[in-house]
Amino acid sequence: MGYECSPEYAENEEQKQRTELRERYLRLLSFLGGREVEVEMLDRTHVTGKFMAIKADQTHYIVDSLKTPIGVVKRAALRMDDTLVISTDVTDVLPHFRASSC
């Protein structure tokens, strides 16, 4: 039985993967802060505004100048469970990334 098959190795690898996913998630939240976002809600309503913060328990997030089909809300807390998609324009950061050529 090789080291790669041991339970300790598997647990260590899983922990590394979880750590990487958590780091990516936190970088995404940091990236979204202050950016204009488009949100598709569970009821298929589309709204836009400036993503400001997320609650520590990740159940709600704050959007400023939320534009809805019936008007603009100065600041709103949206439920994560009611959200299908959060998207933003990334063309301003794409020049910093280069595709690797093989």
UniProtKB/TrEMBL annotation:
It comes from the Eukaryota. GO terms for cellular component: SMN-Sm protein complex. GO terms for biological process: spliceosomal snRNP assembly. Signal peptide: none annotated. InterPro entries: SMN_gemin7. This is Gem-associated protein 6. The lineage of its organism: Eukaryota, Metazoa, Ecdysozoa, Nematoda, Chromadorea.
